[in-house]
Structures are given as C-alpha cells and as structure tokens.
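Escalation from tier 1.

The customer reports that the assembly of two entities below gives different structure tokens on two consecutive runs. Tier 1 could not reproduce it. I'm attaching the input and our single run for tier 2 to review.
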Amino acid sequence: MIKNMTCINCPLGCQLKVEVDGEIKVSGNKCKRGEEYAKNEITNPLRIITTTVKVEGGDRPLLSVKTDKEIPKSKIFDIMKEINKVKINAPVEIGDIIIENVLGTGANIVATSKIQRAD
Amino acid sequence: MERDLVIIGGGPAGLAAAIEAKKNGIDDILILERDKRLGGILQQCIHNGFGLHVFKEQLTGPEYAQRFIDEVEKLGIEYKLESMVLHLGEDKKIIALNPKDGLFEIEAKAVVLAMGCRERTRGALNIPGSRPAGVFTAGAAQRFVNMEGYMVGKKVVILGSGDIGLIMARRMTLEGAEVKMVVELMPYSTGLKRNIVQCLEDFDIPLLFNHTVTKIHGKERVEGVTIAKVDDKRQPIEGTELFVECDTLLLSVGLIPENELTREAKIEINPVTNGAYVNELMETSIEGIFACGNVVHVHDLVDFVTQESFLAGYGAAKYIKGEKSNSANKFKTKGLNGIRYVVPNIIHPENVKDAVNFYMRVSDVYHNVNLIVKDGDKVLYKSRKNHVSPGEMENVKLSKDILQKVEGDELVFELEEVAI
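Tier 1 run:
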C-alpha cells in the first residue's frame, strides 16, 4: 500500500510518500520528524478534539471543552456523540472534568473556559 | 475623568499592554472593552494551538485569554465592559459609552490602541447574486456556533482557505454539517499546514485552488453557489462554471485592522498594512498614542500579538514616566524585493530595551532564498529560508547593539535568491 500525506511539523509541509509493506518506508521528508510523523499517522493517528457542551444557568449558553489527551482519530465522531449528550450546570472552572475517561480512551473531556452563574 | 493610560480593546493585545504597563510602574490604567467579557476573539477560538511560543504548551483560545484575564485581575487593573469608544482626538481625549455610565469623557496621558481587526465581508468581494440568508463571514459563524449555540447551516461551501475558514470547516463537520468544499482564489493557502491536514484532509473535504465563487443562488435562503476556475490574473474563466448545491456560504477572505478611531485622531496609516505606522516602542505618529496587535498588522499567531503588546505597554509606561528619549537619531525600515512590509517602521536606537523584533510578510511563495537586512551596502543579517509564504509571518530579531551602529537613514529588508 502506498499513501501520500503532508507533514505538519513545520511550514515546509513536505509531501510524504509512505509505503507500507510489512515495514513502513517513508520518502519525500527533508528531516527525521517527517518519518516519525508518517509512521504515527499510519499506525496510530491521534487528535485532540475541541468542541462545546450545553450549559444550564450560566452567563452564556455554551462551555468550550477539549480532550485532555490525544485520542484515536477513528473515534472522533463517537466521542462527539458522547459529548453532545452532556448538559452541565454553571459555574464551571477551566480544567473541570466534564466526562471522565471518555469511551475508555483514557482521555477526559475538560472545560477550557470559565462560566459564571447568571444572575 | 483623567487617566494615565487608557487601553482601547480588551483582547489579547490590550490585556498584554495593560499588564506590562502596570509592571513598569503605571497604576492608573483603564481598559475599555466593547464585549461582555475580556479576551476578545480568543473566546470564540475554542480550538487549540495557542501559546506554543509564550507558554511552551498548546492551549485553546479561551484558556490563553484566561491566563491574561487572571493576571489583570491579580494586578488590580481596572476595566469597563460593554464600553464602546466613539471618539479619539489628537489630544488623547476619549468619548465612550456603556449601559452603566452612559456617555463619558476621559482625558488620557497615554493611549494604547488595541482594537484588533474585522473580517472582510461579501460586500468587499462584489459576488453577484441575490441576498439570501446563509452568507456569513467565517468568524461570525464561529461566534454563533461556539458561543451563542446556533448552527448556521447544514450544507456548507467555504470561500477562502485562511486559518479561520479551515478551522470552521472542521468545526461545522464535527457538529454534523456537510462541508462540500473549500474554494481558494490563490494557487496556495495562507492557512497553516497543520490546519489543512487536520481540518480538511482528516474529513476528506476538497480544497480547490485557483477557484472562486462567481454567483450566489437562492432568494430566502442560499440554495447554491456557482464556482469557477480563475486565470493567472485571478479572473473567472468562462466555461469552467460549476453549480454547487449548499445552504450556507462562509467567507474567510481576509481581515482588516479596525482603525476608524486611529484615522479620526489623524494618526498616519500605512496603506500596505492598513494599520498605523509605529516605532520601536509601538508608538504611532502621535506621541503618547501606542498601537499593538492586529490593529497594527494582521498576525498569524496570538503569541506574537502578546509579545508586541508587552512592548507597547512598556513604551506607554516609559512615555508616562517621561523616560522616553526624543533624540533626533533615528532611521526608517523598508521592505524590498519580495518583502511586502516591515513593522516597526521607525527606530530610535536609544529607546530600544534589548532588541527589536521586526515582523514582516513576503509578497509571494518563494523557495531557497536568503532573508537579508542591509544598512546601505552593509549586510547586518542573513538567514537562509527553504520556504517562505505570505501566510507565514517572518521575524528578524536585531540587538540594540546592532541597531545603534546603523549609519544610514534606512534599514532595508529583502529577499535574495540563493544560487544552487
């Protein structure tokens, strides 16, 4: 299998050619980071999700949240579904855990903004 | 009311300027912010990637903002929210209003302009067609989706591949919309590589270079757009038109520094950046009025806004304390041969703290060039660049020592081809 991808480590954006044939062979990269990036992207691509959850009784209707660790790229939409089920009560502080160990990924969904009570 | 320092705008630029002025001995500071909370546009930028330079970690926009808001609170810096500045005079007189105080006037010893920028709209592009609902700037859509809780559409076309457009492509996709494509007039994107990969390629969203939207269809609501290929003069090519069904068009077609107040105060504006000309302390053409952040020139990274704004706060403090030198010893900066602009524009070497960070943008994509800085024929700085692009701001740091030895009246920044 041959896969083409763009390295994201720096503005150069090397076009990488990745051959997977038991072993993973990377070409097109101008530095080592490109090889490492391509190998990770092939074996276990990871992403941070940032999104929002609904808030009750807050000074605004939405709380911004993120996964506190990278999660497998293939689970992005499943995790979005879990996050969208949640409604949280104000107040909320940055870092508060909104969902623990979401879908068994080991990542928590944590608050990234501060919500005060509406008064 | 009289104040030592008034800061117009409570986004990342204004907050950093306030903090630095306070740390440099100015106690009487007032920040005027027109939104309901401090933090500016960072509050709606819920994605991560902020802070790598300043904090050496990846933060989301609201997290980055909160660090500065907490510091402003800790230092006891006063601010007024929902406060709109209506007038700024050459004499540093400010007229503002808010729901609590009504209309009020402030006489300021010094002012920092930190109003940021605003998005170019459909009107700036002259896209033909009717005027249905469903046409938004990407930033307006971002505010609706991330802060107000409204989804702006289900089938989306995005015009412009700057970072806000890319970020919104992913955001809309995560919230269940179908993003049909991102259309880019230029042959390259001004967005970060990371965003092209993680916002478009991750979700198989096509990115069409050398294309634009030539018509918006629909009467009540957008029903589709016509896209077309453009030639090398950026004009649509007849016969390449294609109808794309959608209910929403997001525009990510550039940012304009918000300088109405600056113009009103008759501060000199650089026609290339649409921001004020500034010196080594981020002071404008009016002594005691400083400017920093996106109101001066549009930045890619908030980290650089912060660094530049610390400098403006430091400069304002120097001015208020009467420690700023007014010596005639100065020189200008200029971009040539591929450097579109350089900030700051005027340098008085004796006012420089340790060094000056010169920020600049190139006019096109270039490979294998040297970025050089010249004082007459003398090369003061040279750096090899494998790749430069208008979307990535370049910066060059020159020490006070080097700047004090400049002999000419102009420091020239330019690109030079490298013979291979």
